[in-house]
Design a protein that fits this description.
The complex is a heterodimer of chains A (95) and B (189). Chain A contains 2 helices and 6 strands; from the N terminus they run E-E-E-H-E-E-E-H. With 95 residues, chain A is an alpha+beta fold. In chain A, the strands form 2 sheets. Chain A has a 4-stranded antiparallel sheet with strand order 3-4-5-6. In chain A, strands 1-2 form a two-stranded antiparallel sheet. In chain A, strand 4 and strand 5 form a beta hairpin. Helices cover 21% and strands 34% of the residues of chain B. In chain B, the strands form 2 sheets. Chain B has a 6-stranded antiparallel sheet with strand order 1-2-8-11-10-9, with helices on one face. Chain B starts with 15 loop residues before the first strand and ends with a helix. By secondary structure, chain B is of the alpha+beta class. Chain B has 2 domains: 90 residues, Gyrase A, domain 2 (2-Layer Sandwich), CATH 3.30.1360.120; 81 residues, Heterotetrameric sarcosine oxidase (Alpha-Beta Plaits). Chain B contains 4 helices and 11 strands. The chains are: A alpha+beta (95), B alpha+beta (189). The interface between A and B is medium-sized, with 13 and 13 residues.
């Protein structure tokens, strides 16, 4: 499997390690009233789609960037690769 | 009291050989300094690099040279450069840090890396067995640098000349890395 890194170009997936669902970027506010419920959902509830899935990959044997990869779990086709930093910033985070 | 004198020894004992037209040698006296960009200070670092070394900040995956061609600046990751140059003795960091004057955070990495130069007409045939990168001249241009893994050992790869590459890898596994290259030369040629 080849992951087309936004900065470095196509790289073998052996250079990467996999973390999981890209929703892990959206960590709840620990000071919210219902923080315990939000963290329960954040930690334990995951969609498990047969098809398109957004997931976090770490370029460990490369530039050590985190990526958000959109991959079809049925075909392994990768349709989109973004820097996780850019995704987080687009959600209003500072870094 | 006994007298001692201490002197530095290269990790691979100054290894240098030619097998089947492939010259493989350890780079002796390699200075390697990482430069991290302070938060939101890209412009200040670019100015310091230009003033001190006559070099542009390389994009990630590119190599830039100082105006006297003695220092290579390797673009490793967003906000991280490596400076690679010939340097004898300790304190390689001063050669970079003094001229940056605080515009970048420098760390001396010289003593934890080992550099190998591999060159010869069939060098790509040897490396393609162990290196997951496409090293063909049109895919890996003269000014490219990449970090990858060969036989599970991390390595930084950049070019030197038409049919030559410099490979930087961890000093702690330098002998295993050298063995991987020797085996690949024997297998491929």
């Amino acid at each position: 499997m080849i992951i087309n890194h936004p900065l470095l170009g196509p790289r073998d997936s052996a250079e990467f390690t996999y973390l999981g669902d890209a929703s892990l970027i959206e960590r709840p506010d620990w000071q919210a009233e219902d923080a315990a419920d939000q963290f329960h959902d954040y930690l334990y509830l995951r969609d498990n789609p047969a098809g398109e899935h957004r997931e976090l990959w770490f370029h460990e044997q490369g530039d050590r960037s985190w990526l958000v990869v959109t991959r079809n779990t049925l075909t392994h086709e990768i349709t989109k690769v973004e820097l996780a930093r850019d995704v987080a910033r687009s959600l209003g985070r500072s870094r | 009291m006994a007298e001692f004198s201490l002197y530095a020894t290269p990790a691979l004992g100054g290894y240098s050989t030619t097998h089947d037209g492939i010259a493989l040698e350890e780079l002796d006296g390699l200075g390697l300094i990482s430069i991290a960009t302070p938060l939101d200070s890209d412009a200040a670092l670019a100015a310091a690099l230009k003033k001190g070394f006559g070099a542009e900040i390389p994009a990630v995956g590119k190599v830039a040279s100082s105006s006297d061609s003695k220092i290579r600046f390797l673009g490793m990751a967003p906000g991280q450069l490596f400076a690679a140059f010939e340097h004898d003795g300790p304190n390689a960091e001063g050669a970079i840090a003094d001229k940056l004057a605080g515009a970048g955070y420098t760390t001396d990495q010289s003593d934890v890396w080992v550099g190998l130069r591999i060159a010869g007409p069939e060098v790509r045939t040897v490396l393609e067995r162990i290196c997951p990168l496409d090293l063909a001249p049109n895919a890996f241009a003269q000014d490219k640098v990449a970090r990858t893994a060969m036989e599970h050992m991390a390595a930084i790869v950049f070019r030197e000349g038409e049919d030559g590459f410099v490979l930087l890898t961890a000093r702690s596994s330098a002998k295993s890395f050298l063995h991987a290259l020797e085996v690949s030369i024997a297998n491929a040629l």
